Amino acid sequence: MYVFLLYNSEVYVKNDFNNWDKLPIEKVHFRFCKLYLGVGKKASNIASRGELGKFPLIINIFKRLFKYITHLNSLSETAIAKQAFLISKDLFTKQNTSYYRKAMDILKAFNLNTEITDLESITTELIQPITKRLKENYLTFWKHKLENSSKLTFYSTIKIDYEVEKYLSIIKDSNKRKTLTRFRLSNHSLQIETGRYHNIAREERLCNLCHSGEVENESHLLLTCEAYGDTRVNFINSLKNDLTTTETNLNEPTLSVDIMKSTASNTTLKLSKFIFSCFEERLKQLEAGNAGSH
Fold it and tell me: Taxonomically, which superkingdom (predicted)?
């Protein structure tokens, strides 16, 4: 897929992560990530990409762009491609729009290498540090987006490293794996998520299964909702042998985050089973409640 999407990408460039994500090529990338994860269209784009540790295709394009420039630099003055490159440089020196100018704008926008004063200075040895700097720039952008997204409040507490999540390979049951992914990315049916589409204030997105008056969010399902009391007791008891320290308090407020961040196979499998069971129970109770109201 990437070969197809990146075909001829050396000649079209954008230098803005925000605007790039709106372009058709990256939308295809998002669609692939979401299909692989089994989440819906409304799942967060940056979370879907982050869950797989995938960087936006623009970084691959920039890498290909600078590799192509090193190739152009190696050509003889009589080569047609080299002549076109020199014409592009001439347009740049005259402050006109050109291929050369766009490439220089990228170097400036991302502060990739302050020692590079022109494209002729780019060598093969510089490609790797330039790519590394691009990824660092994106991670700064990604963390900022994550921290300022109300939709990803829970996800921002459990997503630590920008890499593919281990549970994706640990959990073999596709239904349980997808349910856990949707839960992590807030692409689920809890009120904290569905309430946003009905313009319900966050503090008013209350749980309809229990009488606690609490907002139905991820932590509520994991720790306090009475509807899953027995299932939760069995789950917590089963975790005791998996915890890395006997000093861990199973009732502490950070328990939901601690469990979600665990990479232990047994804990991950039990967590996916628990969450899957909760959503099954939730659906059953809501359907029973709807039937009783008619």
Answer: Eukaryota
User: Which of these ranges, 5-19, 102-116, 244-258, has the smallest mean pLDDT?
Assistant: 244-258
Q: Which residues, in sequence order, are CB contacts of 88 under 8 Å at separation 6+? A: 98, 99, 100, 101
Strands (E), the chain: none
- Amino acid of residue 14: K
Amino acid at 125: E
- What is the tens place of the pLDDT at every residue in 102-124? 888 888 877 666 667 788 888 88
Distance of alpha carbon 6 from alpha carbon 28, whole angstroms: 12
Which residue ranges make up each domain of the chain?
55-149, 166-289
Q: What region, left, alpha or beta, does residue 186 occupy, with left being phi > 0 and alpha being psi -120 to 50 degrees?
A: left
The DSSP secondary structure of 233-292, one letter per residue, reads: HHHHHHHTTT-S-TT--TTSTTHHHHHHH---HHHHHHHHHHHHHHHHHHHHHHHHHHHH
**What 3-state class would DSSP assign to 215?**
strand
Please tell me whether residue 164 adopts helix, strand or coil conformation.
strand
Angle at 255 between CA 174 and CA 248, to 5 degrees: 120
